[in-house]
């Protein structure tokens, strides 16, 4: 049986070429042996709209999309979920890469196991400021108005928001940037007590939840760095972390 792989939080950016190199090697190497690859959000550091694929100055977006397409052509299923940095990935990205855009959350039945997949940000409900920001930018009308603005302007807004976010996080209590435990247990209950796989918090771990007396595991994916990426591998029996460097 070919394995299923899960990754998230690569935050690909022109300023971090080493991470892109690890990812492209992964797509041309390890990922080729997979049945399917699930990217659970924040593949890109910031995605200002699919028209960045036409921007001759944006070689990264085009190169990554081409490599994803090669993977799909080689027979590997590809699914991409939005993260909080790349929630504007749209139908054009999907068509050009061959990826299926997955709703968040997504229930996944695999041979030998069932999982619920999420980016993870929606469970960080203690961060009220972030949740109101999220509610605004996920609105269809807001997105349509934003995407109607020139690409250069959208890139500038994205860069300003990234900086603002990094500054805001320095003053935030740690618990605000993690999932809320009660919300998470409710989520696990609502999704039939199957294992949860998510990213976003950059705190790779496996957590044991006891929900209504039922043991449920929550796997948190690692974010990627210049020296190291990571994927989670389902082989039909167990989940294992694999280091990519
Ligand atoms: O991303 P990360 O890890 O730094 O932190 C997140 C939360 N921050 C964000 C913001 C993104 O980093 C920036 C998005 C850039 C890409 C967008 C592309 C296109 C632009 C679209 C324009 C909207 O998601 C951070 C959380 C943290 O995770 C942990 O969960 O704490 O939340 C924040 O920092 C948000 C602030 O707390 C509140 C920001 C209010 C900004 C109000 C601006 C109103 C919108 C105007 C848009 C033109
Ligand atoms: Mn995220």
Automatic annotation (TrEMBL):
<dbReference type="GO" id="GO:0009245">
    <property type="term" value="P:lipid A biosynthetic process"/>
</dbReference>
<keyword id="KW-0378">Hydrolase</keyword>
<feature type="binding site">
    <location>
        <position position="119"/>
    </location>
    <ligand>
        <name>Mn(2+) 2</name>
    </ligand>
</feature>
<feature type="binding site">
    <location>
        <position position="42"/>
    </location>
    <ligand>
        <name>Mn(2+) 1</name>
    </ligand>
</feature>
<keyword id="KW-0443">Lipid metabolism</keyword>
<feature type="domain" description="Calcineurin-like phosphoesterase">
    <location>
        <begin position="3"/>
        <end position="204"/>
    </location>
</feature>
<keyword id="KW-0441">Lipid A biosynthesis</keyword>
<dbReference type="Pfam" id="PF00149">
    <property type="entry name" value="Metallophos"/>
</dbReference>
<dbReference type="InterPro" id="IPR004843">
    <property type="entry name" value="Calcineurin-like_PHP"/>
</dbReference>
<protein>
    <recommendedName>
        <fullName>UDP-2,3-diacylglucosamine hydrolase</fullName>
        <ecNumber>3.6.1.54</ecNumber>
    </recommendedName>
</protein>
<dbReference type="GO" id="GO:0019897">
    <property type="term" value="C:extrinsic component of plasma membrane"/>
</dbReference>
<keyword id="KW-0444">Lipid biosynthesis</keyword>
<feature type="binding site">
    <location>
        <position position="84"/>
    </location>
    <ligand>
        <name>Mn(2+) 2</name>
    </ligand>
</feature>
<dbReference type="GO" id="GO:0005737">
    <property type="term" value="C:cytoplasm"/>
</dbReference>
<feature type="binding site">
    <location>
        <position position="200"/>
    </location>
    <ligand>
        <name>Mn(2+) 2</name>
    </ligand>
</feature>
<dbReference type="InterPro" id="IPR029052">
    <property type="entry name" value="Metallo-depent_PP-like"/>
</dbReference>
<feature type="binding site">
    <location>
        <position position="9"/>
    </location>
    <ligand>
        <name>Mn(2+) 1</name>
    </ligand>
</feature>
<comment type="pathway">
    <text>Glycolipid biosynthesis; lipid IV(A) biosynthesis; lipid IV(A) from (3R)-3-hydroxytetradecanoyl-[acyl-carrier-protein] and UDP-N-acetyl-alpha-D-glucosamine: step 4/6.</text>
</comment>
<feature type="binding site">
    <location>
        <position position="127"/>
    </location>
    <ligand>
        <name>substrate</name>
    </ligand>
</feature>
<feature type="binding site">
    <location>
        <position position="11"/>
    </location>
    <ligand>
        <name>Mn(2+) 1</name>
    </ligand>
</feature>
<feature type="binding site">
    <location>
        <position position="42"/>
    </location>
    <ligand>
        <name>Mn(2+) 2</name>
    </ligand>
</feature>
<keyword id="KW-0997">Cell inner membrane</keyword>
<feature type="binding site">
    <location>
        <position position="172"/>
    </location>
    <ligand>
        <name>substrate</name>
    </ligand>
</feature>
<keyword id="KW-1003">Cell membrane</keyword>
<feature type="binding site">
    <location>
        <position position="165"/>
    </location>
    <ligand>
        <name>substrate</name>
    </ligand>
</feature>
<feature type="binding site">
    <location>
        <position position="200"/>
    </location>
    <ligand>
        <name>substrate</name>
    </ligand>
</feature>
<keyword id="KW-0464">Manganese</keyword>
<dbReference type="GO" id="GO:0030145">
    <property type="term" value="F:manganese ion binding"/>
</dbReference>
<comment type="similarity">
    <text>Belongs to the LpxH family.</text>
</comment>
<dbReference type="GO" id="GO:0008758">
    <property type="term" value="F:UDP-2,3-diacylglucosamine hydrolase activity"/>
</dbReference>
<feature type="binding site">
    <location>
        <begin position="84"/>
        <end position="85"/>
    </location>
    <ligand>
        <name>substrate</name>
    </ligand>
</feature>
<dbReference type="InterPro" id="IPR010138">
    <property type="entry name" value="UDP-diacylglucosamine_Hdrlase"/>
</dbReference>
<keyword id="KW-0479">Metal-binding</keyword>
<comment type="function">
    <text>Hydrolyzes the pyrophosphate bond of UDP-2,3-diacylglucosamine to yield 2,3-diacylglucosamine 1-phosphate (lipid X) and UMP by catalyzing the attack of water at the alpha-P atom. Involved in the biosynthesis of lipid A, a phosphorylated glycolipid that anchors the lipopolysaccharide to the outer membrane of the cell.</text>
</comment>
<feature type="binding site">
    <location>
        <position position="202"/>
    </location>
    <ligand>
        <name>Mn(2+) 1</name>
    </ligand>
</feature>
<dbReference type="InterPro" id="IPR043461">
    <property type="entry name" value="LpxH-like"/>
</dbReference>
<keyword id="KW-0472">Membrane</keyword>
<feature type="binding site">
    <location>
        <position position="169"/>
    </location>
    <ligand>
        <name>substrate</name>
    </ligand>
</feature>
């Amino acid at each position: 049986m070919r394995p299923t792989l899960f990754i998230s939080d690569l935050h690909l950016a022109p300023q971090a070429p080493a991470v892109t190199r690890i990812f492209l090697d992964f797509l041309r190497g390890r990922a080729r042996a997979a049945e399917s690859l699930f990217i659970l959000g924040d593949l890109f550091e910031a995605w200002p709209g699919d028209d960045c694929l036409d921007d001759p100055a944006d070689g990264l977006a085009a190169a990554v999309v081409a490599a994803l397409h090669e993977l799909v052509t080689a027979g590997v299923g590809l699914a991409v979920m939005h993260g909080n940095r790349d929630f504007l990935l749209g139908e054009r990205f999907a068509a050009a890469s061959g990826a299926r855009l997955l709703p968040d959350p997504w229930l996944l039945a695999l041979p030998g196991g069932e999982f619920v997949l999420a980016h993870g940000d929606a469970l960080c409900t203690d961060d009220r400021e972030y949740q109101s920001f999220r509610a605004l930018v996920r609105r269809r009308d807001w997105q349509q108005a934003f995407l109607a603005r020139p690409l250069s302007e959208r890139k500038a807004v994205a860069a300003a928001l990234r900086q603002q976010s990094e500054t805001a996080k320095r003053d935030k209590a740690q618990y605000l940037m993690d999932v809320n435990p009660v919300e998470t247990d409710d989520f696990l209950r609502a999704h039939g007590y199957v294992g949860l796989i998510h990213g976003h918090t950059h705190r790779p771990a496996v957590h044991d939840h006891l929900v209504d007396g039922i043991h449920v595991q929550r796997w948190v994916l690692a974010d990627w760095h210049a020296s190291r990426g990571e994927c989670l591998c389902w082989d039909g029996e167990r989940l294992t972390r694999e280091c990519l460097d």
